[in-house]
Amino acid sequence: MFDYPNLGARVAATIAIILALFLVLFPFVWVFLESIKPPELGARPDVWVFTPSWANWQEVAFESDVPLNIANSFFVAAVTVLISLLCGAPAAYAFSRFRGFSGARYGILGAEMMPPAILILPFFLLLYHLQLIDSRIGVIAAHLTFVLPVVTWFLIGFFDEVPKDLESQAMIDGFTRFQAFYLVILPAVRPGLAAAAVFGFVLSWNDLFYALLLTGSESRTLPVAIAGFWTFRGIEMGKMAVAILIAIIPVLILSHSIQKHLIRGIGGGAVKY
Amino acid sequence: MHLKYKMIVPLVLVLSAIMLYPLAFSGWLSFQDYRLTRIDEVHPVGLENYRFVATDPAFLNAMRNTLTFVFGAVTLELILGLSLALLVQRLRIMRGFVRSILLAPMFITPIAVGLMFRFLLSSEIGVVSHYLGLLGLSVDWFGPQMALLTIILIDVWQWTPFMLLMFLAGLEALPKAPFEAARVDGAGPWLTFSRITLPMLMPVIVVALIIRALDAFKVFEYVFATTRGGPGDQTVTIMYFIYQTGFRFFRMGEAAAAAVMLIAVILVLVVALVKFSKIDRSKG
């Protein structure tokens, strides 16, 4: 598998990689098996061979709030990303192209790093006064605090890489600057827009902290619901496993598609590879 | 108005509403005696909240736990991530496949990671504990002494992939010439690594460290999923402390003061890390 010159190094490296793969994959395999275990075997750590049962999946699909939670998570993440792109893309372009915004990059980075601990208190109090606790609007506003800076930061990096000749040429052809941005540059960074959108979606979809404190039964998102399987009526392991799988499978598929662009986005023009 | 200002108006408006205003609100809150249980008796108390929190053993304990967590987790992730990146880079077959699997943990929701390990490591029904037991080993993963380390290890499981991602890209982008020269001069693998790979990778390492450390300060989900701060207060992190103070004890003023102090600590650390990395580079 490896191209090390001596045999000992090749064997050691192979063992290390197989061990790493095992450690990463084991929890996924376990949670899948747990989801199809017949409920009466739920708490047995020593049973690996059994007749698969879809009882957990059926219960989650038809007798729980999880479908509502999925819809909430999807709605919140989609709207958050949409607003982030609408506000973030023009701003990122301006930060990338115009003079006088060198400080703005650090501002965006600072916003991205802001601990949720300091924002959750005012968010909770304000939404409480506006009677927006247990509303999707409240969670969307909270998620924007981290998705909007991240998306903007991502896009700055992608705009930086577009040659400036592109819009000069477009403006010679009679476009205004904004038309050049909208009709020429935006299409040129489409992969970057997609990567930023997917990454922002994943961040919102995965959030527990804000959703835990700002949602109620109507607006509860999937991560909060997952945590709920442990606190109510003891542990409902099988159903929790199902909910975990529902939360992680779409994200794994989505993020796989943007792996290549992720580095450029996170670096945001700060790291040159 | 120039186009460049028009283009940032939406961003500035939204960020002002959802960040600047809440930040100012939090600042104000930190100087008030603001209890949700006595909402009609809110009154300014000057620096009282800061004085109280800064001398509160529970806050200091949470800060100590958080610093231990951040330092432990990020160090382990750096070492493991760099080692894995060097290994994966030398893979001849299935490199893309191995990489995709090894990166998977960083994309999934932390509460799911926390809960999976909560039950994998559970001393009664946990698979890991069961098989360690068959080997005659008994580890109380969430007991005294172990709990904080276990939470560090959960973080390592989820976030080593982030380091791997950064370092793999960094390694791929390194120029080939220095390595050729080293090979011609007969430099061994260790010398090549310590004198060429590591120094050239340093900018990426610093960025990865800063991003990961700042993120680790926000640890909440693993604690919420596994120990809820216990045993005793051994795994209360700063985020969990603020969550408890604000939303379990309803003391918003003190929670806000703790959050402001958290930001101060983070700022000091970031400045120190950036300074340190610059000194390091000017020497090399």
What does it look like?
The complex is a heterodimer of chains A (273) and B (284). With 273 residues, chain A is an all-alpha fold. Chain A is 75% helix and 0% strand. The model of chain A has no long low-confidence stretch (mean pLDDT 90). By secondary structure, chain B is mainly α. In chain B, strands 1-2 form a two-stranded antiparallel ribbon. In chain B, helix 2 (48-54) packs across helix 12 and helix 3 runs antiparallel to helix 9 (189-216). Chain B is globular and about 75 Å long. The chains are: A mainly alpha (273), B mainly alpha (284).
Chain-wise SSE layout:
The complex is a heterodimer of chains A (273) and B (284).
Chain A: H1 7-36, H2 55-63, H3 66-97, H4 102-113, H5 116-129, H6 136-160, H7 165-172, H8 177-188, H9 190-206, H10 209-214, H11 222-231, H12 237-267
Helix pairs in contact in A: 1-12, 2-12, 3-6, 3-9, 4-6, 6-9, 6-12, 7-8, 9-12, 11-12
Chain B: H1 3-29, E1 32-33, E2 43-44, H2 48-54, H3 57-89, H4 95-103, H5 110-120, H6 127-134, H7 147-172, H8 177-184, H9 189-216, H10 221-225, H11 238-247, H12 252-283
Antiparallel strand pairs in B: 1-2
Helix pairs in contact in B: 2-12, 3-7, 3-9, 3-11, 7-9, 9-12, 11-12
